[in-house]
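Data deposition worksheet. Section B asks for the primary sequence of the deposited chain exactly as it was used as input, without tags or linkers unless they were present during the calculation. Section C holds the resulting structure in token form. Section D is free text for depositor observations; keep each observation to a single sentence. Incomplete worksheets are returned to the depositor.
Section A, Depositor: J.P.
Section B:
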Amino acid sequence: MNLKHVFNFAAFAITGCLLATAADAPKAAKKEVRGAPIQKLAPVAPTNSAPATPEPSAAPAALGPVQKDGEFLIVGFDRLATFNYDIPDDAPASTNAPAKPVAPPKEQIPANVKAFDKQRVALKGFMLPLKVEGGLITELLIMRDQSMCCYGTVPKINEWVSVKMTGKGVKPIMDQAVTLYGKLHVGEIRENGYLVGIYQMDGEKVAGPLDL
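Section C:
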């Protein structure tokens, strides 16, 4: 039942009550009773009308200054994944095709993220082992969440970092957040002409588990 029917029903009920009250009044009462006229109900907007435009949401709070853990800058995906990166629809150039001038790709990585290039950082995330030698992980991804590990969800290109350990490797710590320490490299990574990532790290050590 829409609002228009509700209001019509209410008006009908009120009118019925007034008629019933007048019929039950003693017939001996000759005095004419007059009441204030019932005001007309305001028209009700149809239920299929477009909803009002919501107020714009407040802008997200700005990130504070970068903290340090010893010699390492504490960097999280709250900084690395704060921008949209449009992956170009490119393909490796054919070796038989004549060379063509190619416009340089548009820079999409913000300057405040580029500033972490070649810096030693401490990055929190979840492990996805890629290469294991002697029970130790030597290559892995450090990811923003577990969706890629558990549910096969493809993360955004700025929500994971490709890591190669510089030592013997680290023990696997699965399904729990860890902190990985090492030198971060920021910039487009290409293999055979294809873009395969924008973050790499030379891993030094892992600590965890820690809450994100």
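Section D:
The CA atoms of residues 96 and 193 lie 15 Å apart.
The radius of gyration is 34 Å.
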